[in-house]
Amino acid sequence: MGQKGYFVIKAQTDPEIWTRFDHWYATVHMPDAARRMKAQTSFRLHDREKLHTHVAVYVFDDMNWLETQEFQSAIQSLIVEFNAAWPQGVRRQRMFYDLQP
Predict the structure, then answer these.
(1) Is residue 69, in this structure, part of any structural domain at all?
(2) What is the domain count for the chain?
(3) Per-residue pLDDT tens for 62-97?
(4) For the whole model, what pTM was predicted?
(5) Which H or E run contains 18?
(6) Residues spanned by the domain of 17
(7) Would 10 be classed as within a structural domain?
(8) What kind and span of H or E run contains 34?
(9) Which residues of 47-70 are buried (b: 16+ CB within 10 A; e: fewer)?
(10) Which positions ≥6 away from 13 have C-beta within 8 Å?
(11) Is 99 contained in some domain?
(12) In what order do the strands lie in the sheet with 5-13?
């Protein structure tokens, strides 16, 4: 097994949609995304200085999994579904990290 991998998404929303987005992400999107991407665990962090901003972290046992076609297919379908649910008002940045020894 390789190094642990982390898929991190920073999302900033327009203020008027934050409450709906926050609820949807926590109750619908994150559980579904974690399951479909086969994450070991996932959690969210809310930015205390930049309102209407969160970071979602998905943790994987092996960084190599993030390079598989299965993972990439899951990501692509989740992006399509996310964009359909939130066509406006959400700006995202995706990052991949590994845990250094």
Answers:
(1) yes
(2) 1
(3) 999 999 999 999 999 999 999 999 999 999 999 999
(4) 0.93
(5) helix 18-24
(6) 5-49+61-87
(7) yes
(8) helix 30-37
(9) eeeeebbbebbbbbeebebbeeee
(10) 21, 52, 53, 89, 90, 91
(11) no
(12) 41-46, 53-60, 5-13, 90-98
